[in-house]
Amino acid sequence: MKPSPISNCERRFLLRAIEEGKRLDGRQCYDYRNVSISFGTEYGCCIVELGKTRVLAQVSCELVPPKPSRPTEGILFVNLELSPMAAPGLEPGRQSDLLVKLNRQIERCLRNSRCIDTESLCVVAGEKVWQIRLDIHLLNHDGNIIDAASVAGIVALCHFRRPDVSVQGEEVTVYTPEERDPVPLSIHHMPICVSFAFFQQGTYLLVDPSEREERVMDGLLVIAMNKHQEICTIDSSGGIVLVKNQVLRCSKITAVKVAEITELIQKALENDQKVRKEGGKFGFAESIPNQKITAFKMESAAVDTNNVEEQAEEIITKADPPSEVPVLYTPGTAQIGEGIENSWGDFEELEKEEAAEEEGEDDATAFECQKMEIEDTNMMEETKTDEPILLSDSEEEEVVILQPQELPKKTRAQTNLKQGSTSKKAFIKRRKKKRAAH
Amino acid sequence: MVGGGGVAVEECVGQVVLPGDVLFLPTHPDEDGERLRLGASPAPPTKLLCGPGLRRCDAGLLVTKCGLLRHRQAAGGAYWVDSQQKRYVPIKGDHAIGIVTAKAGDVFKLDVGGSEQASLSYLAFEGATKRNRPNVQVGDLIYGQFVVANKDMEPEMVCIDSSGRSSGMGIIGQDGFLFKVSLGLIRKLLAPKSEIIQELSQLYPFEMVLGMNGRIWVKARTVQQTLIIVNILEAYGETVFKASSSCELTGVTTRICKKNVAKMTSGCEQNVWRKCLKANTHF
Question: Could you give the angle at the alpha carbon of A372 between the alpha carbons of A366 and A373, nearest 5°?
Fold first, then answer.
């Protein structure tokens, strides 16, 4: 299915809001959305929610022969999948550019940074090693897939337990979870990606862009860092030109965010371990609350609502009242409310030109129109106390409105033609000359 | 043919019904007692409207969507299923907001959120002639109504009514913001005495266009005010199904509006505004 296109007014509004420093959901420029981590019953399965973006990660392992070039190292295989469940624009099966890009970024973040110790995954050198397979599925796309996927990936790897193995000479014994407790993977560090979206050729910067913001951004910078402030990968896409101190500023922000997220991950892992040890209930059924059709989930948090009503009243009274002076976009028309600009091009000019070229009833209607306009302006100036503000982008230096004479309807056309046509044609010609001069 | 197990329709009003349920229509006493009735089914009541989510079958009404069954006594009576839906299916006569995706000769292609793109002829605007074309660009918003909408053809929209006047339809202006909500919220907002609209209108002036395809366009004087309205409506949509009675909702909406304005305009940490909503919507 085609994704719904973004309209011009949305794009404009988002850019204007970003220039004023406002985001759609009320966050500040450097704010992250709420991250929540929940674990499944099996080891190595977790769901990470970054705002409304949801990602599921699952780790599994298998004994395989190693790669010939690295006989003493285990293998880490990372795979990210997008499905139409996440967003209507994502189609199954087809290898889109987005999918390839995301897969590459996640691989670089997790594999090239050597976050897990692959040497410890070796069982028999040259013959059997553990292959750790990490599958990441996107459940809902609301922007910033890469961050959510990287958090889910590293959390799942930390959570995973592989079966214990003992080697005696040539014999290899793999113990089932009942015989011996499964063993966690040895993780050196936790690399986490943080995305920065740039707007207006790098002038404005937002952290953790949502889906709407991603659609209007100029470029994206992804920095993967661990809590020891070591940068694991940097990736810039979208073709924007970044200045050195922008990149430095982003890396400082990344350090702060990564520290917060790592703390959250540690806490989540500890909680889960505690629950499992104490024999309590664990798994998705417990940690993800019941989503009934009549109960929408929104994050809840405490708030100080002591004297908010008074504050609100204060603000409303202090704010400027709507101005009494009406603002008109073209002279000679009456408008209710602020209205919208006339999007028909220059209606009156077209009509006058056509009237000059085509003779007949068009003339009568044009004259009648002008007569009505004059009446309108007269009425308006009488009733309103303040002068209406006229905003007109008319290119004419002066507007001459011809006064029609009092004549019966149908015959008006013919008589007026003869009397007024010459002067009118001259008028039109004058106007055309003015336009040609422009 | 559905077997036995149907329920009288009056008993189910206000309860959840599931697809496949059969509801028996109330049997009316014969107006003319002498007339013989040919056929086993009871005489159908006159002018009973069978609304969305329901279909006529020989035994009565067959439910096709899950939701709450509603009834209205006015104008001969009507039954319909109030179901929650976010995906729009074009229906003839509905007013919707479309986004122009392409200009193909004489016709604009609009995305209305359905499975197919709708087509809109450039002559279907008020005062349009072959020489006088409307000034429509790709990416503009159009408010129009469907004249053709069935499952066999692509839907067609027009921006004039049957007498040739635009009556509010046409190209929607440049500024403002478009966002999407569920279809049920739109119906609630379009109800004649919608409290949330009245409360919002007392805050500050704004313009709003509601499309039956779940799209709302809002424009207020500043970006801040527009964002407040957008967030209020989205939050209202999420909580509207929690309210069991409308009187609870009136008090809540006043508080939502006032707190929203306070938090967003006073420059406090803007994350807090969301928490305000949550504090008020637990009921």
Answer: 90
A25 touches chain B (CB under 8 A): yes
Q: Scanning every residue of chain B, which has its alpha carbon at the shortest distance from the alpha carbon of A304?
A: B276
Q: How near does any CA of chain A get to the CA of B259, in Å?
A: 6
Output helix, strand, coil percentages for chain A, rounded to the nearest 5: 40, 20, 40
Nearest residue on chain A to B234, judged by CA atoms?
Answer: A25
On whether any CB of chain A is under 8 Å from the CB of B101, the answer is yes
Count Cα atoms within 13 angstroms, Cβ side, for A325.
8
Could you tell me which residues are beta bridge partners of residue A129? Answer: A64, A122
pLDDT at res. B50? 84
Task: Test B239 with A293 for CB contact under 8 angstroms.
Answer: no
pLDDT of A381 above 50: no
Mapping DSSP to helix (H, G, I), strand (E, B) and coil, where does residue B200 land?
helix
A6 to chain B: closest CA residue: B139
Task: Measure the N-to-C terminal CA separation of chain A; round to a whole number of Å.
Answer: 48
Say if the Cβ atoms of B227 and A305 lie within 8 Å. Answer: no
Contact A308 B176 (CB under 8 A): no
Q: Tell me the average pLDDT across B65-76.
A: 84
For residue A263, name the pLDDT band (cuts at 50, 70, 90): very high
Q: Under a CB-based contact definition with an 8 Å cutoff, are residues A185 and A132 in contact? A: yes
Q: Which residues of A touch B271 (CB under 8 A)?
A: 26-28, 31
3-state secondary structure of B37: coil
Closest to A40 (Cα-Cα) out of A162, A180, A176, A155:
A155
**Interface residue B227 vs chain A (CB under 8 A):** yes
Q: How far is CA A358 from CA A170, A363, A400, B30, in A?
A: 102, 8, 21, 67
Region of residue B77 (left: phi > 0; alpha: psi -120 to 50; beta: else) = left
**More reliable by pLDDT, B199 or A334:** B199
The answer to whether A305 contacts chain B (CB < 8 Å) is yes
**Which comes out higher in pLDDT, residue A18 or A400?**
A18
Average pLDDT, chain B: 78
| CB pair distance less than 8 Å for B140 and A7 | yes
- Give residue A363's pLDDT: 43
Q: CA–CA separation, B228 vs B221, rounded Å?
A: 12
Element holding A171 (H helix, E strand): strand A171-174
For residues A29-52, average pLDDT: 90
Which of A380-384, B124-128, B138-142 has the largest mean confidence? B138-142
Question: pLDDT digits over A100-127, tens only?
Answer: 999 999 999 998 888 999 999 999 888 8
Position A347 pLDDT exceeds 70: no
For CA atoms A306, A308, A311, A313, the dihedral sign is negative
Q: Do B217 and A311 touch (CB under 8 A)?
A: no
ipTM score assigned to the predicted complex: 0.76
Identify the three-state secondary structure at position A131: strand
From chain B, the residues in CB contact with A343 under 8 A are 134-135, 171
pLDDT at position A430: 47
> For helices B223-239 and A8-19, what crossing angle results, to 10°?
110
pLDDT digits (tens, 9 = 90+) for B228-274: 899 888 888 777 654 433 334 444 445 555 555 554 444 333 444 44
Size of interface A-B (CB pairs under 8 A): 146
3-state secondary structure of A129: strand
Nearest to A331 by CA among A395, A262, A388: A388
